[in-house]
Inverse folding.
């Protein structure tokens, strides 16, 4: 078997079109996409759901669904036109030239075979002998920095953590030393710290293996941190292409510009408002004349609706499918900036919610106990947003459930609403208290009953919580609908007839059904596209300004937390590690754990400060470390005291408390802050 | 298999014994206590009261029910199933013979229906949405709802009476070899094959369709594995776990469902035995027969559970194996 010539590019899409056959019609999903990925290059393909980015990956490996076909153009992987390959040659191409990593590593691994068996399979196809396959599989696991490859080889997929599973999938993909590695949303669903690790790993391995990378993602920041070139896909067309930094810093297509304006970036609450992109992407095949983006574009003119723009070459390797690519800077704001409130925090104001010494212990079989939450005290002022951050298992959701009364806190704790203590269980709380504390879930699909109409969903909440019926209820439903920017046309719709953003609006409307005082927002936008996310974030901001409601915002996206929060609490292993005003927490001095979380978050500018790697796994909450619970992973651990004594948690004048033995002047600051290197030095010498 | 699997097995065994005990109570209540006066039930309303009393004494039914129950269970535990009133002979050999015959029939049923049902389900899934899938799905559903006695009569008419391909009765001549026995058993097996076919085919189709659409199957295809390997190692291995569980659980059901078929085909299996014992008011035989069916059902379910645990690495791991 001869290896493919290395002169041809890793991937060449030449005027590629793909159509899906639906109800007797061919719907174009990709139209005339042309792009080239050189050997060893990392290329990012971004776009919202439905833009066709995953179709690119499926088409170039010829694994389109049964009703899909390449309707025009060519896709060449390492010089081979995939459409013309016979079945043996196609298998050869899949076995040697191209590999793919899917979004959810837990699903990409066969649940009933050991990791070893699945690793060995890759070498089996390449013709290795029995024992050799396992030896090389184990070696490959070592190369993706798995410290105990023999144990992992013998494990079944479900016995590994998400991050570890993704490493195994990446190892399987790289084992064949492919010319092209496709990563389809590889870090969605992973914690920020693990996402950062995976991205770092991919970057290192790309250099070691010399594989080209096609990185498909809706996460612009992740793309910016890994890729040198980027293509932006909209409604099946490549609308802009260019070097990553230049493209994100100076977009030349109004769609790219719009997406970037949707991203919560450096600003704090009250800073620059997010914009959004009005309307929806067109259904495939619905726009046959002119520019596909024209209906949503703030620069569109008559010419845009009549004449489809070609991909204009605009110098320095960039291209834009916009007639007015030189006027993108003039793109007007597409949405009203929302009103922003300020919280009523002060010594004379009663906090709306006060948690005192909340703990939650779960019993495990065998008389073991796990403390999901330990001694958490905090308060929430009227109109205030408290951002809650921490990795999975840190206790964020447990805290939310205790506040909502869905789980009961241990004896000795106390939850007060407007100064009155309320029962731990929601069933024992008076209606007044129940309606005052509401929730918006992450996934509106599973939070809304599919069998009911929008009218019923919101109306029922009004009835139950506000205790009104008839005309008054209908009036309230209408007002709520207006408040969340839906129209009466949506009243008879069922959830499946609504887009993801609309569904989340219905969920927000339901939470606001009866003048709530506190709303727990649990990852309210992480299932949504960027443009929809910004609209929901603006909506939450505006509703808060109107009603002076308080939010507890749980999110792993630090950009979102920064944009909305007045105060931020950082949790680890069920404990509060840090709490304080958003600015103080994010800019520092802050807890070493906060510092690590912040350093893990990629930014769209593509610059990466030194990433602070957290060693090892999160310890088991059944058996938490002694002393400071973070000491087993802390890069700034400096003395025996970290292992023996739990640090105090006294707030300073601003209400900023840090659970760390290090004095404040030695703690880290924001990643570009001047204090960081000095602090690192002291920590190292200490 | 580690010690946890042993504990799981022990717990399941304990539960099975408990179930069996409950079955014995229900059987006892149904056969002995509810008729009130077994002797009267047997001899009829016109019989002389002294004859009834004598029979009750012979049956041991003149004692308090609890005492009767305890001695019955004690005898059963010793392997003594009691005396048949109708045959004036020990029950055990009858039940043993009938059980062996029924198991043969069940064996033939599953020999036919498992490959057929699983095959049809997998083929349907591979052709999902196409006409072949529709045909298999509709056919399997329609077949499932046909009661055994309807299909049995139709089958007898076609294959035994009109075409004369298969013998009408299920009882083979004395000393017939296994192949001849098989020939006699095919026709009686078919009605239950028809009922079970739809069930198994639908399970197999659902499992296969899910596995085919999974990311791990896509990953396997994209490894460049040949289609055959993808199917056997990745698709079927995961797709058929629930089907295998269902099949194992159905063996118990099939044994209980044999009454109609065995009667129609005059086959001396356990179903027929129970039915004629009920007609003859042969309570010892009835109790022993039903208890045997119950025990078989429980054993089949236990085996099904063990298979499920052994096929699923996640459950196996929770068992500590």
């Amino acid at each position: 078997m001869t290896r493919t010539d290395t002169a041809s590019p890793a991937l060449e899409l030449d005027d590629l079109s793909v159509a899906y056959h639906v109800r007797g019609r061919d719907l174009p999903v990709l139209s005339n996409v042309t792009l080239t990925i050189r050997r060893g290059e990392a290329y990012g393909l971004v776009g919202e759901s439905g833009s066709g980015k995953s179709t690119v990956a499926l088409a170039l490996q010829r694994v389109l669904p049964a009703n899909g076909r390449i309707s025009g153009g060519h896709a060449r992987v390492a010089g081979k036109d995939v459409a013309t390959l016979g079945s043996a040659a196609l298998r050869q191409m899949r076995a040697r030239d191209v590999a793919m990593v899917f979004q959810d590593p837990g699903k990409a691994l066969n649940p009933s075979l050991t990791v070893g068996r699945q690793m060995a399979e890759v070498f089996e196809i390449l013709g290795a002998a029995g024992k050799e396959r396992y030896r090389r599989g184990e070696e490959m696991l070592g190369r993706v920095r798995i410290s105990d490859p023999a144990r992992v080889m013998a494990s079944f997929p479900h016995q590994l953590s998400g991050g570890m599973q993704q490493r195994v999938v990446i190892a399987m993909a790289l084992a064949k030393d492919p010319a092209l590695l496709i990563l389809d949303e590889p870090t969605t669903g992973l914690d920020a710290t693990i996402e950062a690790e995976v991205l770092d790993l991919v970057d290192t391995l790309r250099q070691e293996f010399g594989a080209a990378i096609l990185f498909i993602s809706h996460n612009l920041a992740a793309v910016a941190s890994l890729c040198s070139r980027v293509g932006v896909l909209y409604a099946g067309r490549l609308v802009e292409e260019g070097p990553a930094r230049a493209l994100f810093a100076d977009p030349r297509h109004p769609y790219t510009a719009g997406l970037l304006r949707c991203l919560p970036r450096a600003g704090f609450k009250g800073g620059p408002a997010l914009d959004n992109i009005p309307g929806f992407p067109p259904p495939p095949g619905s726009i046959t004349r002119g520019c596909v983006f024209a209906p949503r574009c703030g620069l569109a003119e008559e010419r845009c609706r009549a004449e489809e723009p070609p991909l204009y070459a605009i110098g320095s390797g960039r291209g834009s499918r916009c007639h007015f690519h030189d006027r993108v800077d003039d793109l007007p704001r597409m949405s009203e900036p929302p009103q922003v409130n300020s919280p009523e925090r002060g010594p004379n104001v009663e906090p709306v919610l006060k948690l005192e010494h909340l703990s939650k212990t779960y019993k495990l079989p065998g008389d073991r106990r796990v403390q999901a939450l330990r001694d958490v005290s905090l308060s929430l002022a009227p109109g205030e947003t408290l951002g809650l951050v921490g990795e999975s298992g840190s206790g964020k959701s447990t805290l939310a459930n205790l506040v909502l009364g869905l789980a009961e806190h241990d004896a000795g704790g106390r939850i007060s609403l407007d100064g009155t203590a309320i029962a731990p269980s929601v069933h024992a709380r008076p209606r007044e208290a129940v309606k005052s504390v509401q929730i918006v879930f992450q996934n509106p699909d599973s939070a809304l009953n599919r069998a009911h109409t929008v009218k019923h969903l919101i109306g029922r909440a009004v009835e139950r919580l506000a205790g009104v019926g008839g005309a008054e209820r209908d009036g309230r439903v209408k007002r709520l609908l207006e408040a969340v920017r839906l129209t009466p046309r949506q009243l008879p719709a069922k959830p499946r007839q609504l887009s993801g953003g609309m569904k989340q609006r219905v969920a927000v409307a339901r939470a606001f059904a009866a003048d709530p005082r506190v709303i727990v927002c649990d990852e309210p936008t992480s299932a949504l596209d960027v443009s929809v996310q910004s609209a929901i974030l603006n909506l939450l901001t505006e509703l808060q300004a109107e009603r002076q409601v308080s939010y507890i915002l749980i999110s792993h996206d630090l950009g979102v937390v920064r944009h909305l929060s007045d105060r931020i609490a950082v949790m680890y292993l069920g404990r509060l590690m840090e709490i304080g005003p958003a600015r103080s927490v994010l800019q520092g001095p802050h807890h070493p754990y906060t510092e690590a979380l912040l350093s893990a978050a990629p930014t769209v500018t593509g610059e990466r400060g030194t990433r602070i790697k957290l060693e090892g796994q999160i310890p088991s909450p059944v058996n938490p470390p002694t002393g400071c619970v973070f000491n087993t992973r802390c890069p700034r651990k400096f003395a025996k005291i970290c292992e023996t004594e739990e640090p105090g948690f006294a707030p300073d004048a601003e209400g900023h408390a840090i659970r760390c033995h290090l004095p404040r002047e030695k703690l880290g600051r924001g990643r570009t802050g001047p204090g960081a290197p000095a602090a690192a030095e002291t920590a190292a010498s200490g | 298999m580690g010690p946890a699997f042993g504990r799981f097995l022990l717990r399941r065994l304990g539960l099975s014994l408990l179930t069996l005990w409950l079955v014995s109570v229900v059987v006892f209540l149904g056969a002995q206590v509810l008729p009130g006066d077994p002797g009267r039930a047997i001899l009829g309303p016109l019989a002389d009261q002294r004859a009834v009393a004598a029979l009750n004494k012979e049956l041991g039914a003149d004692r308090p029910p609890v005492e009767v129950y305890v001695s019955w269970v004690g005898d059963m535990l010793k392997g003594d199933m009691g005396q048949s009133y109708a045959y004036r002979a020990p029950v055990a050999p009858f039940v043993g013979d009938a059980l062996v015959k029924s198991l043969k029939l069940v064996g033939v049923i599953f020999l036919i229906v498992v490959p057929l049902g699983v095959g049809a389900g997998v083929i349907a899934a591979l052709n999902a949405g196409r006409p072949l899938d529709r045909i298999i799905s509709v056919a399997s559903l329609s077949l499932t709802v046909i009661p055994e006695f309807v299909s049995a009569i139709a089958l007898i008419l076609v294959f035994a009476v009109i075409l004369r391909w298969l013998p009408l009765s299920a009882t083979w001549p004395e000393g017939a070899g296994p192949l001849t026995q098989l020939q006699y058993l095919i026709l009686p097996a078919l009605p239950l094959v028809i009922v079970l076919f739809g069930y198994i085919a639908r399970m197999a189709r659902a499992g296969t369709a899910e596995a085919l659409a999974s990311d791990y199957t896509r990953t396997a295809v994209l490894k460049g594995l040949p289609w055959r390997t993808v199917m056997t190692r990745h698709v079927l291995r995961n797709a058929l776990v629930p089907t295998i569980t269902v099949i194992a659980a159905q063996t118990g059901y099939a044994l209980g469902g044999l009454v109609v078929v065995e009667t129609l085909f005059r086959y001396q299996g356990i179903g027929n035995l129970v039915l004629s014992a009920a007609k003859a008011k042969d309570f010892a035989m009835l109790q022993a027969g039903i208890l045997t069916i119950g025990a078989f059902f429980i054993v089949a379910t236990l085996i099904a559970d063990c298979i499920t645990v052994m096929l699923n690495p996640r459950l196996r791991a929770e068992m500590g194996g």
User: Anything to note?
Assistant: The domain at 353-553 of chain A is CATH 3.40.50.300 (Rossmann fold). The CA atoms of residues 101 and 169 of chain A lie 6 Å apart. Chain A is about 35% helix and 20% strand. The first strand of chain A starts at residue 11 and ends at 22.
